[in-house]
Amino acid sequence: MVARHTCAFALTTALALAGSAFAGERDNTVRFAYDQVPENVDPYMNNVRVGVIIGQQVWDTLIYRDPKTNDYKGQLATAWKWVDDTTLELELRKGVKFHNGEEFDADDVVHTLNFVSKPESKVVSSQNVSWIARAEKLDKYKVRIITRSPFPAAIEYLAGPVVIHPNEYYEKVGPKGMNEKPVGSGPYRVAEHAVGKFIRLERNGDYFKDSPKPMPKIEKIEIRFIPDRQTQVAEMLSGGLDLIMHVALDQANQLKNVPHLKVVSGETMRIVFLNYNTTENTPASPLKDIRVRQAIAHAIDRESMIKQIVGEGARVLHTQCFPSQFGCTDEGATRFNYDPAKAKQLLKEAGYPDGFDIDFYAYRERNQTEAMIGYLRAVGIRANLRFMQYAAMRDQVRAGKAPLIHQTWGSFSVNDVSASIPVYFKFLPDDITRDAEVRDLLERGDSSVDPNVRKEAYKKALALITERAYGLSLYSLPVFYVAAKNLNFVAYPDEMPRFWEMTWK
Amino acid sequence: MIAFTVKRLGLAVLVAVAVSALAFLLLRASGDVAIALAGEGARAEDIENIRRIYGLDRPLLVQYLEWLLKMLQGDFGQSLYFKTDVLDLVLAKLPTTALLAVFALMFALAISLPLGILAAVYPNSWIDRLCLSLAVVGQAMPNFFFALILIMVLSISFRVLPVSGSESWSHFVMPTVALGYYVAPAFMRLVRAGMIEVLASDYVRTARAKGLSGASIILKHALRNALVPVVALAAVQLGFLLGGSVVIETIFALDGVGFLAYQSITHKDLPVTQAIVALLSFIYVGLTLAADLTNAWLDPRIRIG
Description:
The complex is a heterodimer.
Chain A: H1 2-14, H2 23-26, E1 29-34, H3 49-58, E2 63-65, E3 72-74, E4 77-84, E5 87-92, H4 106-116, E6 132-139, E7 142-147, H5 154-158, H6 167-180, E8 188-194, E9 198-203, E10 220-225, H7 229-238, E11 243-244, H8 249-255, E12 261-276, H9 290-299, H10 302-310, H11 340-349, E13 356-362, H12 366-378, E14 381-387, H13 390-398, E15 404-409, H14 421-425, H15 436-447, H16 451-467, E16 472-484, E17 487-488, E18 503-504
Parallel strand pairs in A: 1-10, 1-11, 13-14, 13-15
Antiparallel strand pairs in A: 2-3, 4-5, 5-7, 6-7, 8-9, 9-10, 11-16, 12-15, 12-16, 17-18
Helix pairs in contact in A: 4-6, 9-11, 15-16
Chain B: H1 2-27, H2 33-38, H3 44-53, H4 60-72, H5 86-121, H6 126-140, H7 143-157, H8 170-199, H9 202-210, H10 214-243, H11 246-251, H12 257-266, H13 270-298, H14 301-304
């Protein structure tokens, strides 16, 4: 730990000798690095962030959500309407070509959606497509998508992860061939893909003018896979890269002082919260008492945590969803202020004047877990940290062995509450509360097509969760980007660098 | 010699099998593989699907024996994460790691030979102490720390070398130095000890009496004999370098077997992890065997013990 800090400090001071690094501007190339390697750049065959990023540059979706206004615009589709509760009819755009010259039409939509919705296709992020029953062609530029059950969030998914592949090419080469030589219709085409090392993108000169994604100004993008964060920072300092993301807070603060770099912090849709196992067989019986749960809520100082360790851009959340998600609101929710004296009082009333012991599970941002352990100990709750890999922790949670969990959820950047709260409260395997009233409200919200009915149901469910103190919503997580100072770059909450709108200063 | 070889070969095979079994078991000890594969957000049916598809619901012994049998036929299975043939995947990354290991070994020898000779020619002098200190620093400093220092000096302060990647020979300079510096001390000490012993021997005294120059004695006569144990150690160190380069490969973004091992572990890509452990252990066992046999052939006394 000391070595890393010393190194980071030394790295920063070393750049007194480093000159400016505007190589990117000279050859109109943005060099970006990411630490994870997608196992397959076909967007349906990986579930890493960089896969999503590459997906949006190289491919298009039927519908497009404007990141600034959250309005839905047509991209590969020009119009759409719900014919009934489970049938969506779309009109498609004419005159669009894929990077290999194939013309876009209904066959591409039908083939892609029918292929990815089949379990045999082994799509990695199956929840993004499992709502699709099938797609049907009505004529050359008209399709219908039938959903398995009423699924109002369909529009959001069609505007996000569900990209369209060229059917002739995809049928011939499949996901494996798509990984080796990716072909889409997006603003960038793949010039070279060295699996595991880098992927080079080039501006698509024939990109259709009516797309809500504008014709890019940056001609080339080079995405390199560099697993070590320190190396990424070193590359930024030496001018080898123009943009990196997920930089740790302490490093970001130091890099602020580097003359040719700038730090951009963006809030993300990832929410952080505590889960409690309040079922009959919970390993921590104190959690069954609402006063104990309320005590925990009053014991943690979220504002201080944001200021000191989470970082700029984060905000305190009062309900377990991200504010921009449709249906997310904290209206009517019970709010818990930081009041350790009240926490101690509540514990005494509940019969724990000397506190109690409890296992506290976590899998990331360990410094935040440790801060919370400190707060809990101050009111007498002796939390014992059990830090492990996500997979191992999930086992424990689903087996009912984890009483208190420090959890995060990114909703796969889907801007609809159905992608977040039901995971933990709808009697699915991760639901360790099992409140039937909450579940029924969420059912109503998830399956109605009327937006007002949905909003009302979700509002009631979210408020009920806070009223009964099931868990504690903490805050949203910010992500820190480091960019070359001369790169115009905007950070959006969906953690998607949009290369097509970047320019040089 | 034959009996010795057969005994050693048998031992090597046993070691290799034991290591593969251990790796197989330990990999399954931390968490349900099916959940790890399914990833965050997967539903129960997806996980059960995965369990069935990959045969993870069968007894452990059955899974292990099946894997062992297939491996002996050259079939290491499919990578669960990359969805390609495991052997192809590993062989594609092996050249980078092998290149790095060989360069590192050459670098280690290039600095340890002169240092060792110098230390031996002036034993217990300040030169000797200096050489030893240089060696100790190499062994004491964590190689990731050294790598970062190199990056700081050679890439950031003085833009002489690229930070990461594997496109050109210049990309291999810093990784080679960082990795090689770590194994150099062992060689240096061996060369020093060997040279001191040889320089005190009768035939060297004879050569001196005959009037041969110092350089000729050291390089032509003494060094050749002192190098015998070094060659044996080099074989073993090569095995270590092949398996121990994960950190260097990660820092310098070299897409080699070490980094592949790290990725396969974090993604619970069992077939790949098992294959890498098996292949590297076989290579290591093979190199150790070669070192043993070389030593035994050169020095008959070893064959009896």
